Amino acid sequence: MALKLDELRTPRIDFGKGIELSFDLEEYTDEPAKQKAAKELRETPEIVLASIKELRELICAEKELLVPIDKDAFLKRFLRPKKYYADSTFEMMKAYYKLKQKEDSILSGLSTELLADVFTDRLVQILPKRDQHGRRIMYMEMGGKWNCSKISSVKLIRATNMLMEAIGREPRTQLHGVVFIVNFDNLSFSHIGQFSPKFVKTIVDYGQRNSPYRVKGIHIVNNARMFNFLFKVFKPFLGKKWSQRIFLHAADKQSLHQHIDPASLPSFLGGNYELPEYDGSVVGQLLDCYKDKSEESSKYGYTVQEK
């Protein structure tokens, strides 16, 4: 397993047998993507120009919010999940940075050094292949493979957010979205105890309303009776949209495959390709190749502490 540079010097993880993971930061220019963007996101040249102009004006009026209003790519990252409606984009942006400002936020401490053990244990992964709709696939271990006495739920969520920050810079991911597969095999009361109602509300509110990502599905696998106790904590905070996008598959891989093509999945999820055991620290190395972007992003936000 190695981190390599391709002919364009783009860093990528080479898993062998042609399976690789890299970040695609280029704007999409192919017609199918542009047509989908126009249909689903209202992304036409006229609307994009008008929405960026309106969002810039709203941000300028929010004197204490520091973000790079001169960078179209940054503004599009927030506009796309809100279908280029500047008002709702601005409300989401404010909520996002207010959450980031809070002490012990799930959006703080996003560094490979602080989260190295999460990546090394491969508790959160970006699967190398996108699904049949072009969506990124995030895979999480939230059962027996998660040693919650060593790694807290806060660190687990922070590591997830660090990976989401990375793929969130990809225009194609901004367009197609993300799906989650979460493995709850051998879930215990120790794991469940990591999730207080207050913490769960923070996670769910962020995911549903205040994050600049298009989460298109959350697929729960290996959920046994113990999972029901945890789901009871989450359920009161779920809105209609997310409730409709959560799918419980238990151990039925065929059920999962009705939503995600096996060609997009590794063999341990019943898929068609082999993803070898690997040293998860290589993911940290890949993220560190974009450390300048992460450090720049960490400077954005409110300049005055909210009272």
From TrEMBL:
InterPro entries: CRAL-TRIO_dom (IPR001251), CRAL-TRIO_dom_sf (IPR036865), CRAL/TRIO_N_dom (IPR011074), CRAL/TRIO_N_dom_sf (IPR036273). One of its GO terms (cellular component) is membrane. GO terms for molecular function: phosphatidylinositol bisphosphate binding. It comes from the Eukaryota. Pfam families: CRAL_TRIO. Residues 115-277 form the CRAL-TRIO domain. PANTHER family: ALPHA-TOCOPHEROL TRANSFER PROTEIN-RELATED, LD41874P. This is Cellular retinaldehyde-binding protein. It comes from Anopheles darlingi (Mosquito). The lineage of its organism: Eukaryota, Metazoa, Ecdysozoa, Arthropoda, Hexapoda.
